[in-house]
Amino acid sequence: MTEFEKILKVFAEEVNLAAKRELGSRKIGKNRSYGVASRSLQKSLEYKISGGRVSFGSPLPYAAFIHWGVNGTRKNRSAPYSYRNENKLPVPAIRKWMKVKPVRLRDKDGRFVKATESRLQSAAFLIARSIKRNGIEGLRYYEAALEAQVPKFQTKLGEALAQDLLQSLEFKSGNITVKPK
User: pTM of this prediction?
Assistant: First the structure.
């Protein structure tokens, strides 16, 4: 393993850890885990190094939607994804989320009410409709991780690449081959 590959592996690991921290650090007010339900996306982040190239990602099908966001039918989030089918709302996914996050229902005066099945279904429908209209803002967790880690590793990666380049050089003159130390 070359010196550049060693530094690249450390760099990729640090970027991946920073992306995981970025996903787990959405905080609003006293709610430290805002937006983080099961942490399955955070746990699934991975990287691969092949031929001096690093690729970051997640095998989960919704990872790209969380990273880039989704345009709503009424609000543009400058995302490559959009809600198209007006009839299909993600109500079952919202119900699942409501179970993971203990959502308490309130009446029009702000008092807590008993969570019956019909009230939960109605609340899930309204939340899903709002998400469809307003879209989902992207978290850009890998962009933030790269912005934080690239300045730290820029010099190290450059020096390691230069060192590997010098070690790969050789000079031939007739029968004599000279390699720098």
Answer: 0.75
For residues 66 and 49, what is the distance between their CA atoms, to the nearest angstrom? 23
Distance of CA 47 to the CA centre of its chain: 12
Cβ 61 vs Cβ 44: under 8 Å: no
DSSP 93-127: HHHHHHHHTT---B-TTS-B----HHHHHHHHHHH
Distance between start and end Cα atoms, the chain: 18
Spell out the domain ranges in the chain. 1-61+138-181
Residue pLDDT, tens place only, 85-94: 667 788 998 9
Burial class of residue 178 (count of CB atoms within 10 Å of its CB; 0-12, 13-18, 19+): exposed
For 95-150, how does the pLDDT look when each residue is reduced to its tens digit (9 = 90+)?
Answer: 988 888 888 999 999 999 999 999 999 999 999 999 999 988 888 899 999 999 99
Gap between the Cα atoms of 97 and 132, Å rounded:
16
**Tell me, what DSSP letter sits at residue 82?**
B
SS3 percent helix, strand, coil of the chain, rounded to 5, is 50, 15, 35
Radius of gyration over every alpha carbon of the chain, rounded to an integer in angstroms = 24
- What's the chain's average pLDDT? 86
